[in-house]
Write a structure and sequence with these properties.
Layout (H helix, E strand, L loop, with lengths): L29 H4 L1 H53 L1
Length: 88
């Protein structure tokens, strides 16, 4: 009986894959772990978002006012054209 012994060949890799290590929690410093810091950070974020939303609403209101002025001008123009059409 003949037995075959197969040798395992290892081929060299064409490139090395980088290993990335990520941490799941914010445990880098004592400040990052404190609850007071998290509350303060959330308060700042909420304040920023509120201010940003107020700015966006102000811009939208200004656009609505501009469109209303434009609409009034077009209505006047339409009324003038209707008067001209009636005279003719």
């Amino acid at each position: 009986m003949l037995s075959r012994v197969t040798a395992v060949r290892r081929l060299p890799r064409a490139f090395a894959t980088p290993a990335r290590l990520y941490s799941d929690s914010r445990s880098e410093g004592s400040v990052a772990q404190s609850k007071g810091f998290n509350k303060k950070e959330k308060a700042h974020e909420d304040q920023f978002i509120h201010r940003h939303e107020q700015e966006q609403l102000a811009k939208m209101r200004a656009q609505i006012d501009a469109k209303n002025i434009e609409l009034d001008a077009l209505k006047k123009q339409e009324a003038e054209l209707a008067k001209k059409a009636e005279k003719e």
